[in-house]
């Protein structure tokens, strides 16, 4: 059976054993070539899962969030077991490629911000100014009155 090395702190032991990827990271550090060879397995698994989601729902994150979380966890495990940090530029590039494949038609609806009409905007500006002036006047009046009493 597979066993995780005690020094492989980043290896998710249960997940690594299930995926058959739990290995000791190389002593020399990040094995980028090996990482790039392993990441496509995550992409292939994600592609299989995305077949269960109708294409027109690909832009609705709630339809596939579990699959996407599984995909990102997979990329993290594959990256960590070869001694690399996650995320890193190469892993990000791979993930971006997957995004381009599945989500290139998804647009982010950006709210067009507009100033409210003048009849709303002017009171929103004037009322705090008048309240500030009134409170300042009240404080000055109270302090003068208190000085007269003493």
Contiguous low-pLDDT stretches (5 residues minimum) are 1-27
The level 1 CATH classification of the largest domain is Mainly Alpha
SS strand fraction:
under 5%
User: Approximately how much helix is present in the residues?
Assistant: 55-70%
Please give the largest β-sheet: none
SSE pattern, N- to C-terminal: HHHHH
> How many discrete domains?
2
- Please count the helical segments: 5
Mean pLDDT metric: 80
Q: Quickly give the CATH architecture of the largest domain.
A: Orthogonal Bundle
Shape: elongated
Report the oligomer: single chain
Distance between the termini: 90 Å
**Taking Cα atoms only, what radius of gyration do you get, to the nearest Å?**
29 Å
Q: What class, by secondary structure content?
A: mainly alpha
CATH superfamily heading of the largest domain: Receptor activity modifying family
Number of strands: 0
Q: What do we call the CATH topology of the largest domain?
A: DNA polymerase, domain 1
GO cellular component, one term: plasma membrane
Transmembrane segments: 120-141
Main location: membrane
GO molecular function, one term: coreceptor activity
Kindly describe this structure.
This protein has 150 residues and is mainly alpha-helical. It folds into two domains: 13-103, DNA polymerase, domain 1 (Orthogonal Bundle), CATH 1.10.150.510; 114-150. It is 60% helix and 0% strand. The chain contains five helices and no strands. It has helices spanning 13-19, 32-50, 65-81, 89-103, 118-149. α2 runs antiparallel to α3 (65-81). The longest helix has 32 residues, at 118-149. It is elongated. The chain starts with 12 loop residues before the first helix and ends with a helix. Mean pLDDT is 80; it is low at 1-27. It is found in: Cell membrane. One of its GO terms (biological process) is regulation of G protein-coupled receptor signaling pathway. One of its GO terms (cellular component) is plasma membrane.
